[in-house]
Amino acid sequence: MPATPAWPPKSAPRMFVAQRLEQGATVTFGGNSAHYLSRVMRTSPGAAIILCDDQTGEWAAHVVSIGKREVQAAVERQLRSREEVPDFWLCAALLKKDRFDLVLEKATELGVAAIHPVVTRRCVAGSLNADRARIITTEAAEQCARTALPALVEPAKLEQLLKTWPADRTLFFADEEGGLPAAQAFAGHTGPAALLTGPEGGFDDAERAAVRALPHARPISLGPRILRGETAAITGTALWMAAAGDWQH
Question: What are the backbone dihedrals phi and psi of residue 159, each rounded to the nearest 5 degrees, phi first?
Fold first, then answer.
């Protein structure tokens, strides 16, 4: 006798919604979301979809109706509670748009709790399109089956970041001039942590001195080669997740 197929199937569309989900709730999609479900994924009434609300977790639902401008779905049952991600911030200097888009996407996939864009003296970019950034992180979370969206903080100047740094959080500083090897520095670390990575031109001497003067800063090295800003941010985050984050489970 053939096994009963899993429901909802792993191939079901996965989407974040703004409303808090519960069994029996109705969710109405409009605009791009409706277009995605009806035209891109070609769902039909009865088709399974997976919904997340960044509050309660992940829910199985099915499409009830498809109209010209909206799609309605009914929530059936909870599949997973909202996940607990490591208390790890990525404080990455702003880069050119396409390169920082990559940082946003991969940081989300890797499991960071928050992304803090930082403005330094050598940054090529000085601002961030918040709506675009949230779309990128949301789509990345949907793709990797993450149930908790990373907090996306407004860009801040490095001086302000250091001035308001919380006393209970270690700041690992990816310094081009060297420090303790990252894997060694991260190993066995417990408690809130963050990683600071620089822009295309690196930190200037005054910025480097200011970061190193912070009592909670720990200079680290990401290897013998000079890494691009996006490479440093992604590599450093991956190393932290492997050594002290949730990759150990």
Answer: -60, -40
> Each residue of 224-244: pLDDT tens digit?
999 999 999 999 999 999 999
Q: Could you tell me if 115 and 89 are in contact, meaning their C-beta atoms sit under 8 angstroms apart?
A: yes
Q: What is the span of the domain harbouring residue 30?
A: 14-81
Q: What is the pLDDT of residues 38-82, one digit of tens each?
A: 999 999 999 999 999 999 999 999 999 999 899 999 999 999 999
* 56 occurs within a structural domain: yes
Count of CA atoms in the C-beta half-sphere (13 A) of 57: 13
Q: Are 225 and 182 members of one domain?
A: yes
- On whether both 25 and 105 belong to a single domain, the answer is no
Answer whether residue 4 is part of any domain. Answer: no
- Count helices and strands in the chain by DSSP H and E runs: 7, 13
Contacts of 215 (CB under 8 A, 6+ apart): none
Q: How far apart are CA 20 and CA 145, in angstroms?
A: 18
Residue 22 vs residues 52, 53, 198, 226: alpha-carbon distances, Å: 11, 10, 42, 49
Domain of 38: which CATH number?
A: 2.40.240.20
